[in-house]
C-alpha cells in the first residue's frame, strides 16, 4: 500500500554507548566508540518527562465525547496507562535506567534484548502519552496549510490520505498503533503500523507526528468490535493537527 510502512520495529545497529546512555551493569563499552553524554535531539513536541510518573490528561476525561466516552478514557488512562507506569517504576528500580527521562529509557532499552520488560513498559508509557496529545476536542477536519501541503505532496490529496489512514488503522492485525510520521531525509509523510509496544521512537529513522491507539482497550467499551467506526471518529473529529504542526516545527528548529 502506498506510503504505508508495515514493518515491525527495525533492528538497530547502534549500541547504547553511541546513544549517550549508560551501559547495563557488567557490560563493556565498545572500544571504538566514546560515550556521548549530550542529550538526544528532540523527537517531538511531547514534553520529555521523567519516567514512573503518570502524566495528567491534556483535557477533561469527558472532553472527547461522544467519540470516546469518559468511561473509556477513565479505564484507559487511570488503569491501563497507569499499569505500564507502575510496572516500569518497579522494573527500573536500582538499575542504570533509574533517574533517566522516559524517552532515554525507551531508546536505551530498545537496543538491549535482555531489557525487553523495561522496553515494553517504557514504550507503552511513551506511546500513550503521545496518543493523548494526538487527540483534542477541537481536533479533526483539515490540517493547517503548512501540514496540508505536506499531506498533498505525500499522498496526492487529503481525501486519499484519509482513505489510507482509515484502512491502515482499521486493518492492523492484532494490537498496535498507527502513526503519522515524517521521513527527515525526504520530508515526505508516511503511515507506519507498529505492533504491541513497538514505537518509532526506538527506530530513530522517522519523526512521529501523531498516533492512533488500536489496542482493543482504546475503543471496545464504546464500539465493541467496530474498530473502523472508532478510527473514523478519531480522524474526523479528534485528530489534533496543531500537535502535528508543533512536532514538525520543533524538529525543524532543532
UniProtKB/TrEMBL annotation:
InterPro entries reported for this sequence: Mn/Fe_SOD (IPR001189), Mn/Fe_SOD_BS (IPR019833), Mn/Fe_SOD_C (IPR019832), Mn/Fe_SOD_N (IPR019831), Mn/Fe_SOD_N_sf (IPR036324), SOD_C_sf (IPR036314), TAT_signal (IPR006311)
Positions of Mn(2+) binding: 76, 128, 213, 217
Catalytic activity entry: 2 superoxide + 2 H(+) = H2O2 + O2
Residues of the Manganese/iron superoxide dismutase C-terminal domain: 147-246
Highest taxon above the source species: Bacteria
Pfam families: Sod_Fe_C (PF02777), Sod_Fe_N (PF00081)
Keyword vocabulary terms for this entry: Iron, Metal-binding, Oxidoreductase, Signal
Signal peptide from the UniProt entry: 1-29
Similarity section: Belongs to the iron/manganese superoxide dismutase family.
Summary of the function given for this chain in its UniProt record: Destroys radicals which are normally produced within the cells and which are toxic to biological systems.
Protein name: Superoxide dismutase
Organism: Eleftheria terrae
Amino acid at each position: 500500500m502506498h506510503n504505508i510502512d508495515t514493518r515491525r520495529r527495525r533492528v538497530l545497529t547502534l549500541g547504547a554507548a553511541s546513544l549517550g546512555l549508560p551501559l547495563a551493569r557488567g557490560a563493556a563499552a565498545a572500544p571504538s566508540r566514546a560515550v556521548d553524554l549530550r542529550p538526544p535531539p528532540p523527537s517531538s513536541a511531547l514534553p520529555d518527562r521523567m519516567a514512573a510518573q503518570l502524566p495528567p490528561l491534556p483535557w477533561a476525561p469527558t472532553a472527547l465525547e461522544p467519540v470516546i466516552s469518559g468511561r473509556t478514557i477513565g479505564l484507559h488512562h487511570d488503569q491501563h496507562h497507569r499499569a505500564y507506569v507502575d510496572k516500569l517504576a518497579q522494573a527500573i528500580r536500582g538499575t542504570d535506567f533509574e533517574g533517566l527521562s522516559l524517552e532515554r529509557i525507551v531508546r536505551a532499552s530498545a537496543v538491549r534484548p535482555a531489557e525487553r520488560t523495561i522496553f515494553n513498559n517504557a514504550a507503552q508509557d511513551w506511546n500513550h502519552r503521545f496518543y493523548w496529545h494526538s487527540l483534542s476536542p477541537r481536533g479533526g477536519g483539515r490540517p493547517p496549510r503548512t501540514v496540508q501541503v505536506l499531506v498533498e505532496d505525500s499522498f496526492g490529496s487529503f481525501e486519499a490520505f484519509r482513505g489510507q489512514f482509515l484502512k491502515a488503522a482499521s486493518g492492523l492485525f492484532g494490537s498496535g498503533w498507527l502513526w503519522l510520521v515524517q521521513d527527515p531525509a525526504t520530508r515526505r509523510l508516511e503511515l507506519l503500523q507498529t505492533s504491541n509496544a513497538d514505537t518509532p521512537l526506538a527506530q530513530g529513522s522517522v519523526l512521529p507526528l501523531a498516533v492512533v491507539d488500536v489496542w482493543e482497550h482504546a475503543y471496545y467499551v464504546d464500539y465493541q468490535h467496530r474498530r473502523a467506526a472508532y478510527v473514523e471518529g478519531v480522524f474526523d473529529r479528534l485528530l489534533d493537527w496543531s500537535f502535528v504542526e508543533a512536532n514538525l516545527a520543533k524538529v525543524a528548529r532543532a
